[in-house]
């Protein structure tokens, strides 16, 4: 099996785990920022252990790269905080569907950053994804809770597009574990004060949920995702990540009994079509 196919398999495995993480936004009874903080604190600890065991080189080649990886960590903190906020304001389906609009942002940003021409297929698939997102939004009103959640989801998708560009640059120069550790640790430092500033009820269920979210759905999934980008473009990774919406909705149905509305079903079907078409 060639490197490209292995990278695609890693990418799909990562997306399946990321889809499971969306359910925690509804399952855990703590604020969205606290969920994001717990997630990165747990994942950072595991990543540090893995880096030490594998004896990876932590020093970066250039001083500028430290700035790049720290900026990526700040964007990561914004992405996960707004992602969980979107889900808590609306639903798992709405949060994941609006998040999946980020391939559109990638289609615009990636050619500008890396001086590449976007493929016609990427442009078409990204536009189809956006149509799917627009179908799901009931009305464009700030007073509607679902719409508010959708807007936070779009902020999350934009920040994720920027993070994907950072990862494409960093993954070509450094080991995926090292990149993930720097990003997660930066996000952990930024979000750690949330534990003290926001009221939380840290019972056994919330603690266990945060641990699974951080160790499995974050550390493992993020490493697989960054590693996959060594041999695939950020646009390709972005389109495949549209499947996270489908996985998230399925998990919500099975674990929470949360069923999408007709509009969300239709929008999700459009997004699934675009993802499959891109994969083919």
Written overview of the protein:
It is built from 13 helices and no strands. By secondary structure, it is mainly alpha-helical. The mean pLDDT is 81.
What are the salient characteristics of this protein?
280 residues, mainly alpha
Category from helices, strands and their pairing: mainly alpha
Overall 3D shape: globular
Share in helix: over 70%
User: Beta-sheet strand percentage?
Assistant: under 5%
Give start-end ranges of low-pLDDT stretches.
none
Cα radius of gyration in angstroms: 18 Å
* Total beta-strand segments: 0
| SSE series | HHHHHHHHHHHHH
Distance between the termini: 17 Å
Mean pLDDT: 81
Largest sheet: none
Number of helical elements: 13
Secondary structure elements and pairings:
Layout: H1 3-27, H2 32-54, H3 63-89, H4 92-99, H5 102-114, H6 120-136, H7 145-171, H8 176-191, H9 194-197, H10 204-228, H11 234-240, H12 243-256, H13 262-279
Helix pairs in contact: 1-3, 1-10, 1-12, 2-3, 2-8, 2-10, 3-4, 3-7, 3-8, 4-7, 4-12, 5-6, 5-7, 5-11, 6-13, 8-10
